[in-house]
Write a structure and sequence with these properties.
With 117 residues, the protein is mainly beta. The protein has strands at 4-7, 10-13, 18-24, 31-39, 46-52, 57-59, 67-72, 77-82, 91-99, 106-107, 111-116.
Length: 117
């Protein structure tokens, strides 16, 4: 059973920064795409950022220039560096991984990020 373990959420004031981490229970090269999604209160889950094995990255327009996604293969961990946080960034953030062998995608348990104004 593949697990994605997230950490790094918390409460921060507007304008502050947080870094989320996602550590899969198997080597990251098993996933061709990894990313972060979020679900705010009363909203649908949305893609925040994603990255591929070739290190290309894709961002939602709402976070471009403020968030950076990265993968550290040596630590087998994916990160989401969030800066200039806004109250509208408040959400539960989920790690996502798409396996190269096909089948179901994997999700983390979610980590709460709350940005106060």
């Amino acid at each position: 059973q593949v697990q994605l373990v997230e950490s790094g959420g918390g409460l921060v004031q507007a304008g502050g920064s947080l870094r989320l981490s996602c550590a899969p229970s198997v080597a990251m090269f098993n996933f061709d795409v990894m990313g972060w999604y979020r679900q705010g209160p009363g909203k649908q889950r949305e893609l925040v950022a994603s990255t591929t094995n070739s290190r290309s990255a894709n961002y939602a327009d709402s976070v471009k220039g403020r968030f950076t996604i990265s993968r550290d293969n040596a630590k087998n961990t994916m990160y989401l560096q969030m800066s200039s946080l806004k109250p509208e960034d408040t959400a539960v953030y989920y790690c996502h991984a798409r396996p190269q062998w096909g089948g179901s995608n994997y999700w983390g348990q979610g980590t709460q990020v709350t940005v106060s104004s």
